[in-house]
Amino acid sequence: MSELMLDGNAAAGVLHEIFAVEMTTAVGTCANCGAAGEVGAVQLYRGAGLALRCPSCEAVLMKIVTSGRRAWVDLRGLRTLQLDA
Amino acid sequence: MAEVVEVRPETSRTKTIAFDVSDWPGHRAGQHVDVRLTAEDGYQAERSYSIASATDASRLELTVERLDDGEVSPYLTEELRPGDAIELRGPVGGYFVWNPGAQGNVLLVGGGSGVVPLMAMARQRSAEGSTIPTRMLYSARSWEDVIYRDELAQLANEDGFDVVYTLTRTQPSGWEGYDRRVDRDLLAEVAPAPGALEVAFVCGPTPFVEAVAGALVELGHEPLRIKTERFGPTGG
Amino acid sequence: MPLISRGFHGRQSEGPSDRIPPGQHLVDDFPVLSAGPTPHTPLEEWTFTIEGGAEPASWTWEEFRALPSEEVTADIHCVTKWSKLDTVWRGVSLDTLLGLVEHDAGYLLAFCDGGYTTNLPLEHVTDGKAWIAYDYDGEPLEPEHGGPARMLVPHLYFWKSAKWIRGFRLQDEDEPGFWESNGYHILGDPWLEQRYWGD
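^ inputs. structure came back:
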């Protein structure tokens, strides 16, 4: 818990720009502990880039770095992502 | 691109800004937009603001609280005038939206400017003619800081909607309502019973949201039924 | 081309432009950014460890504070575009620490409470370029700014100045850390504006 923490929903704009689908209601499964939940409900931290963390075990689910023209996304912390069509 | 059509004060520190947005796709109550400002030297600042208005084809309203040491909020509340254009991205945030199931019993808990997306939900509920039992718990510093006061009084006349205030710093004389920060006991009195809660939306400064969400869980509410929107350390 | 917002100036301060790298703006406050929750390791449990040398070396908090330290005044530059001039720190120089370990490595990978890592070539942390800092502005470094101790490498973007550092591993290769492995530049020289891969 931290005063700096936001909800994954706060990254909705960036996520939509990158993935072009509604990501906040996608259900992710944590590769570290197996907990599953909506991306909108995960922990969001803003460092040099964005780090989305599992609300159960605090492991990094996703890292996002954006420059004006490119974005880098590390999804290794997610075992799987379930998106509605 | 969004063009300002109106700026109107709500309280001494908040204003509602109405925009016409070309190609606005409409939105769902609870969603937000990302506003980006660019200075002439290229300096940029970006902030997210919850949409205050109910779903509407072309017009979008944001309610912004001016933070004394803020960078974007003083610009939006004091500089912007009708005719100005700003860049915004959205609407986004399908996770935190009004979409209760038929069971009803919705709890909306807002701290300070956290009431903004909850007001969008209340307005949407009213526009739909919904009778889903909905209670808003609104924590504000004083009666003068309550945004949308008159409109909330009107909405409270409608079927199944009511507002409970807690004024944490100063209260008007004769005030008989709550006068302290939202805590577990207060929520026990105000929230529906754990099994009867369809969904709770909690929004405001991060410490407020964490205290409220934590207390709701302690009272036995299912964590998955508690949706949070943390505004950060100081709020919107 | 972004839309210019009429009348918007932001909160930038005026400052000497020869000290502000390209694309940066001066700030008066000290913004707090973090990739994770603030750790709170009790000092009785805190250790600093150097791995990868001839023998591992480790210090407790008391032992670390007994090492020679110095006051450092530096300008700092965050890749998110804020810069802050004349920040004052106290810490142990990497020259001191590396002098206590026998090694022939060319690089280090710093590791921290909470799991953050960052990589640095040794030539960028020697000859008075880097410290493990535990005081800021005359006071013990606050947890939100990396206390009890953080790396301080002011000539590079501040993501290299890893908060909550607990040690580093000496290595033969430049292994990308937490952010370097996902888009941020392997070195990060603000004067060459090395923010991202390919810059």
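The first strand of chain B starts at residue 2 and ends at 9. Chain B touches chain A at residues 31-34, 48, 89-90, 92-96, 206-207, 210, 224, 227-230, 232-233 (CB under 8 Å).
thumbs up if we can close this ticket
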